[in-house]
Amino acid sequence: MAEVLVTRRLPDGGTEPLLAAGHHVLGGVRELPWAHDELAAAVPDVDGLVCLLDEQVDEGVLERGAAGRLKVVANVAVGYDNIDVTAAARLGIVVCNTPGVLDEATADVAFLLVLAAARVASDAERELRAGRFTGWGIDKYLGRDVAGAVLGIVGYGRIGRAVATRGAGFGMTVLHHSRTPTGEPGYVAGLDDLLERTDIVSLHVPLTDATRHLIGPRELERMGPGSVLVNTARGPVVDEEALAAALESGTIFAAGLDVYEREPAVHPRLLAAPRTVLLPHIGSATFTTRRTMARLACRQVCDVLAGVAPPHPVLPAVP
Ligand code: NAP
Ligand code: GLV
User: Quick check: 122 and 143 in contact, CB under 8 A?
Assistant: First the structure.
């Protein structure tokens, strides 16, 4: 029997794979993220760690774990920019994530933001709630047509493809961009080219050194005044200061965001920006999806502790 630290309260049944395998589950009750030093102090005494995306499992934490008996870290998320996977590989600690099981839920939220941002839904709802709905207005809350628009998907992986399906279903022309040519219709090799050719851009890249501030002032200029930006990837993929300025000046038309550079803080200029829809990182937040993610993470800890290859190990990027 191994000891596994589950940093937070997981959805009902989430830790069941660990319990069924006879492991001793520690924690599993907290609502808030563990602080770095607290995590570093706890990991040497456990065999496995199940953590969430807002907990920093950096080199220091991993070195402390490796000096003890930590063998596996499972992130209840597909994005793993909170874990130093290079250090983990060097230290012989297996890292796992939860790809695939959240694609549809996250694509739904991305498309929700496409529709809500293009149709200025947040501004309109805010006015209504403030008691300023004075009747149907021929020139009030005018948005951009989604049907017939060109949708640009940046990062054409699991979630990007699921968003592309939704776009096609809504009568959009869909283009996509990634570093590796897909060989599929709609592939655009250059990001600048994609930004210039699309009306609505939806981001689905992981956060890496290469994607940090992928969208900055220059890219927003390229998108143009009628365009809409949607970000459900990771906050730092977009330069928020530049985005706020672009929304204020009309450099782009609207934005829909689920993720932020310094979560849970939201840039005050974005909170005040016009034609901006803001959600609190809820891409995968359905009952079923979150439970499935939790179980998948816990099952992979069981696999590693049993000496079995887990289905979704994360490996360091090849330079
Ligand atoms: P994925 O299947 O690995 O797809 C990522 C795509 O990004 C691939 O097509 C990849 O292709 C491309 N890419 C990587 N680096 C790039 C770069 N520098 N320039 C252009 N394209 C690049 O990942 P996924 O499962 O779809 O998840 C994507 C991200 O969504 C996650 O990493 C996570 O951060 C985020 N996410 C957010 C939520 C939420 O709640 N808002 C939920 C789930 C996931 P190439 O490598 O060929 O370029
Ligand atoms: C959520 O943001 C995830 O990466 O799963």
Answer: no
Q: Where are the alpha helices (DSSP H) in the chain?
A: 16-20, 36-42, 59-67, 85-91, 103-118, 121-129, 158-169, 191-197, 217-223, 240-249, 268-272, 287-305
Q: Which two tokens stand for residue 204?
A: 């689905």
Which residue owns the Cα nearest ligand 2 atom 1? 77
Other beta carbons within 10 angstroms of residue 130's beta carbon come to 8
pLDDT tens digits, one per residue of 261-314? 999 999 999 999 999 999 999 999 999 999 999 999 999 999 999 999 999 999
pLDDT score of 317: 81
Ligand nearest to the CA of 113: 1
Average pLDDT over the chain reads 98
Q: Which domains, from first to last, does the chain contain?
A: 3-101+287-305 (3.40.50.720), 103-278 (3.40.50.720)
pLDDT recorded at residue 166: 99
Query: Ligand 2: residues whose CB is within 6 Å?
Result: 53, 77-79, 102, 283-284
What confidence score (pLDDT) does residue 1 get?
A: 85
Active-site residue among 177, 281, 295, 312?
A: 281
69 is catalytic: no
303 CA to centre of ligand 1 in angstroms: 25
Atom of ligand 2 minimally distant from the CA of 98: 5
pLDDT single digits (tens) 253-274? 999 999 999 999 999 999 999 9
SS3 73: strand
What ligand is nearest to the CA atom of residue 294?
Answer: 2
Our mutation pick for probing the ligand 1 site, out of 153, 179, 201, 258, counting the most ligand atoms within 8 A of Cβ, is 179
Neighbours of 30 (CB within 10 A): 12
Q: Cα 261 to the chain's mean position, in Å?
A: 12
263 as an active site residue: the answer is yes
Atom of ligand 1 nearest to the CA of 77: 43
User: Are 88 and 65 contacting, i.e. CB atoms less than 8 angstroms apart?
Assistant: no
